[in-house]
Design a protein that fits this description.
The protein is α/β, with parallel strands linked by helices. It contains 9 helices and 8 strands. Helix 5 packs parallel to helix 9.
Length: about 240
């Protein structure tokens, strides 16, 4: 049976936040207070819509935005990890579940030549309109009160696993690598033989530490600092 590797994107695959990295395409690399202060908790995608609208107002071209996004650094060891996954597609499926957007992730993966590693990307749909403004929509709607309004990663993962099962694909093991608070919810649908990998020093590690004796967390927890740590665990899980 195959192994499923699940990644968050920002501060996991790449070593920064793609949604804030885009601000570097502005001439002074800053947002006005009217945009900066408009964020409401749990409504990040709406906020990013206003950010991209402001970038469009400043006449920043889509090509300029793309050239800046392609400079975001990958997390240490992540290119080797994704290359290994690309070379073992017969035994590893790989998906990304992210609160970024389709345009940014597609650009970044293609610029690195690593897009072949990833089978599916679940994130907020985005596109440039006829005026050259990027529009971002919510990935889906859900009724989970633990997650941002635009994305419940547990709902995405459960649906993906169900669809794969219906197609005759079951996974021996699922490895989930992430860093943030919105990566906690999907850990509740992992099984005892699965692995959740929080990034060392980030929010998810702290949240999981509080769940040490909680029955809702069945998966093994292994902390990672680089893609090399994840690669070692992936190789070990394929051999066990």
């Amino acid at each position: 049976m195959k192994t499923l590797m699940v990644f968050d994107f920002d501060h996991t695959v790449v070593d920064d936040n793609s949604d804030t990295w885009v601000i570097r395409c502005l001439p002074d690399q800053t947002l006005p207070d009217s945009v900066e202060n408009s964020y409401r908790k749990g409504h990040w995608t709406e906020f990013m819509g206003r950010v991209m609208n402001y970038i469009g107002d400043q006449k920043v071209s889509p090509d300029r935005v793309r050239s800046v996004m392609e400079t975001i650094p990958f997390t240490a060891g992540m290119t080797d990890l994704l290359t290994f996954i690309s070379d073992h597609k017969n035994t590893i499926d790989c998906i990304v579940i992210s609160d970024s957007n389709t345009v940014f992730i597609d650009w970044i993966l293609h610029a690195s030549g690593l897009q072949a590693a990833v089978d599916r990307v679940f994130t907020n749909p985005a596109k440039f309109n006829e005026l050259g403004y990027m529009e971002v929509q919510c990935h889906h709607s859900h009724d989970c009160d633990r997650c941002p309004v635009n994305l419940c990663k547990r709902k995405v993962l459960e649906l993906y696993l169900s669809e794969q099962c219906d197609g005759g694909v079951e996974y021996e093991r699922v490895l989930y690598a992430g860093d943030g608070g919105n990566d906690l919810c999907p850990t509740s649908c992992l099984r005892g033989r699965d692995v959740v990998m929080p990034r060392k020093g980030f929010t998810l590690e702290k949240l999981l530490a509080r769940l040490e004796d909680d029955a809702s967390l069945r998966a093994k927890v292994i902390v990672w600092s680089s893609g090399t740590d994840i690669l070692e665990e992936l190789k070990a899980s394929m051999q066990s």
